[in-house]
User: Fold this.
Amino acid sequence: MMKDRKCDTVRYWSMPRWSVFLGVVLLVLKMSAQSPHGEAFKIDCSACHVPDSWTAMKDPLGFSHDSTAMPLIGVHARIDCRSCHASIRFDVKPASDCIACHADVHAMTVGNDCARCHTPQTWLVDEIPELHEQNGFPLIGAHGNLSCVDCHSADNTLAFARLGNDCINCHRADYMATQTPNHTGAGFSTNCDECHDPMGTGWSTAFANHDFFPLTGGHTIQDCAQCHTTGIFADASPTCSSCHQTDYSSTTDPNHTAAGFSTDCATCHNTGPGWNASFDHNVTDFPLHGTHATTDCMQCHANGYSGTPTACSACHIDDYNSTTDPNHATSGFSMDCATCHDETAWGNGTFDHNSTGFPLHGTHTTTACIECHANGYAGTPTECSECHMDDYTATTDPNHAECAFGANCAFCHDETSWDNSSFDHGNTGFVLHGAHLAASCNQCHANGFMGTPTTCSACHMADYNSTSDPNHAAAQFPTDCASCHDETNWGNATFDHDQSYFPIYSGHHDNEWSTCAECHTNPSNYSVFTCVDCHEHNNQNSVNDDHNGVNGYSYNSAACYNCHPDGTH
Assistant:
């Protein structure tokens, strides 16, 4: 064994020296072949380098920065690697904050987070209004038209130190310099938007919150000094008289002072153009209606506004005395105009006649007052004859005077139409029905209306005597027409032969005769009748045989009727 080890040693050192040198070189080359970009950067060199030169780079690079924590977008995608990577060792990551690569041009006035305002797409900022709104100061109105440096003034125009969101932070000089009105002397709030509109295009636009005293109508003045004459705005009084006392004292139509009007102008006036009075008379004891509402104040208040009487006569006594249709004074009418008139139209009286003892109905309601009150209105009689006596005496159909009709027109007439009588015949002993109802009064009352008989014959005797079928007189019919006739139609008799005498419309005799004369052979006396002259009874022998053995039999009509009153066997 020792021998063999010795031999091996001799063999080793007996090798050529160049081989040892070659091994050392190879070892050095092996060591020098490691990546200069760091051991953690494991990527094939050919992805970025070309074989001809290690300084020449492929375009595009085979390496994607998307695999890192910082994808390259926008402007970052176009810059050289060495712009960010100062060392070629890529396993050493550069700082990820913007400020590490980008100099802070804003001098730390807006922080070091560039992404708050900038994007990799472009370093220009186009969302300034949104950024301002996020910071609690939206750029609206006149603020929206300003350049950044108008507010953010510094030696470095890119330095945007926070100014504060209160108006006074920027406008203190304006506040101090303003004299119309003097803001400092008046003690105005330093919060400018209490009086100025930030939405306006100019700060001079007044936008005062005057809700404690609304500026409406004539109060919408532009010069505050018109009311705030002392220049001190805090002590201005909201009472009307503090500004309008001179107007109050100088007004003569009406004289406010003499009338004792309230110095609170709003009692009667509004702020509309011209300060026109809008006094609500309804708050007084005399509300205005109708023509009163359009009457000029001075017509009633000629002697002032205090103690003005409310009685009608106080204003209308001349109208009362001068009225002749009707004459109010001589008629003794009440001086309370409202008794007959309303406030809508004084020309038309609205006297309620129903409140008297003579209510007006029908044609009375359209009759002129003077027709009944020709002699005045006091003590006017209510009897019909007092107004209608001429009508009574002139009437001939019927003649009221000759007939001795009562002078109470209402007994026969109503107030709807005087021409038509509404006399109720039912109140007499002779109620009218049928043809009697349509008959003219004179047909029955030709000799007057007094003592008119109610018997049929008194009016119809001529009809009775002239009737031949049958001859009423010859037949000795009763003169009581109602025995056979009713009042509906005088041409048709309603004589009931079957019930009263002998059944000729029923039983064996129905349709066995044509005229009354077949049985009543004596036209002068219908009480006489014959049975034996008809049909089978005319053969006496045959009739005698039929009645053989009948007690009391006699061949005569009276005997027939006695035994056969209903015409049966």
Notes: The radius of gyration is 68 Å. Strands lie at 49-50, 53-57. Residues 95 and 409 are 128 Å apart (CA to CA).
